[in-house]
Amino acid sequence: MLHIVVCVKQVPDSREIRIHPKTNTLIRQGVPAIANFYDMHGLEEALRIKDQHGARITVITMGPPPAEKTLKECISLGADEAILVTDRKFAGADTLATSYVLAKAIQKAAEEFGPVDLVFCGKQTLDGDTGQVGPGIACRLDLEQLTYVEKVVRLDVEKRRITVHRHLEDGVEVVETRLPALITALQEMNKVRRASLPGMIRAARYKPIVWTVKDFSDIDVSKIGLKGSPTIVAKSWVPEQKPVDGEILEDTPPEEAARQLVDKLWETELPEKLGWDAEREEVAP
Amino acid sequence: MTEARNPNTEPDWSEYRGVLVVVEQREGKARPVSWQLLGIGRQLAQKLEVDTLALVMGQDVEHLAREAISYGADKVYLADDPVLKDYRTFPYSRVCLELIREIKPEIVLFGATYTGRDLAGAIATHLPTGLTADSTMLDVEPPPSRLLLASRPAFSEKMVATILCKKYRPQMATARPGVFDALPRDPSRQGEIIPFRCPVKEEDVAARVLDFIQDEQKVHLEDASVIVAGGRGLGSPDGFKMLKELADALGGVVGASRAVVEAGWISHDHQVGQTGHTVRPKLYIAVGISGAVQHVVGMQNSDVIVAINKDPSAPIFKIAHYGVVGDWSQIVPAMIEEVKKRRGLLPVEKA
Prior knowledge:
The complex is a heterodimer.
Chain A: E1 2-7, E2 10-12, E3 18-19, E4 26-27, E5 33-35, H1 37-53, E6 55-62, H2 68-77, E7 81-85, H3 95-113, E8 118-122, H4 133-141, E9 144-156, E10 161-168, E11 171-178, E12 181-185, H5 197-205, E13 209-211, E14 231-237, E15 247-249, H6 254-267, H7 270-273, H8 276-283
Parallel strand pairs in A: 1-6, 1-8, 6-7, 7-13, 8-12, 9-12
Antiparallel strand pairs in A: 2-5, 3-4, 9-10, 10-11
Helix pairs in contact in A: 2-5, 3-4
Chain B: E1 19-23, E2 25-26, E3 29-30, H1 32-48, E4 52-58, H2 62-70, E5 75-80, H3 89-103, E6 107-111, H4 114-126, E7 131-135, E8 137-140, E9 148-154, E10 159-165, E11 171-175, E12 192-195, E13 208-214, E14 226-230, H5 239-250, E15 253-256, H6 258-262, E16 283-287, H7 293-299, E17 304-309, H8 316-319, E18 322-325, H9 328-342
């Protein structure tokens, strides 16, 4: 049977983070923790493969203990096993240190539950926004790397080949490769299902497997957490908006406002820069 | 940031010199971000007093190596091989790794495109070294520190963070398209093209690119000279039809705020701001967009900004060169008429 690992992350819903208008600092209170939704599209795709071909799905997250909530959500949707990789020593990891620990966890999951055929990640996380952890894991485990996938077109379990649509700036690339492979999922890939009642009951009773540093026999502690992270944040700031003393029309009838506005635009260098002048002459000599 | 360093503990990076830009191409055409990276890369190289280097990979792409020189590269490494015809992570990353290990650049830059992120993520892990994603500002500390200061949006673009990589070399970053300026193309520039061997054989590559389905409809905000963008103030998805008409009259494309993209009014390709696009058109017209920080950072470097909003206190007016307070649904149609008239796009009345 196929063994699929899905990497998920619980993230603060960064869309809800506000900047304090006076102090210019982040307001983190009351920001809900959610499952990184790109990851959930990866889980959904794994579930669809399970429905069609049969598969064992192991969900792995690295994070603090409250991330258990996200793992239970995955169980409620149909994942078979969920692993929480947690330790203070893992904290402060950048993408390099994160992919190291997740790769170690996937290897350990392979030892305990069988060789891994497919790994799903989200295309990026909402809080980190880097999209680097997926490629990092693929590289460390020598998996075929399929990023920004919007569709799994075909999975040939016998021949161990997979065909996907990769999303690029100007179109879609159709790529076929071997298993084992790692896929990073886009939202477009599928619609995430809702939990079934039996799923919710199972999730309520389910206790995730917890792995800490000492559960890994061969982990190199110099490669984890803050110490194992080559990148450091030197400083962060709220970007300054350059205020412009613009000309703002108020209480002007719409047609008059439109005319004045277009007048203003034509007084700038825009018509010249955009080649409208020359064109105008051609059209109306 | 330039604290005193103990020479006994600080690694010696003196053999790492030069700024390398990895050129991205598809079917022999370079992505504009590659030349933008050479523009900023050359600035960094000048501060560091080193060469600007480029790597061109593909099949029959020698013309791009010459282009790279025209856009500012001093030396171009050219890996021209049938295995590199299509981008595939494995062979492309192997070429990069071999080159980086051989020539030891201190900085390596990639475009923060789908392909650039795919490639850079693999290479950084292999080396290993630090990689900053999606940079929007790049600078270096002058020698002797020579540190790359890569800044990028954080927390849904509400903040900017500067990332350093002190203990590993090379320092790597992907950089957002449309943010940095390319140098003017100068075909008379002199440079050196150095052939570089592809270490991978076709039989060792598992992935096959079967097809590429071009999307003609796709909008390219980064390349647009004029963007007419809409936000929640439009009231409904229908509003975009009228914005499209204005964009067409101006020879531009339609953009959108994150809020309406997430509400499903228009596709993600149109989004300006978070995990969307940083744009710098000659003209940006914001219709019904209040101007949240994450939107503004994505467009504030546009040459001319016009805001139309019914709320006079909307922050967008603070960065607008021209603004109209009022009902967009009356102002925009009048603008369409006015623009068409001036551009001679209306049917000419017979005298």
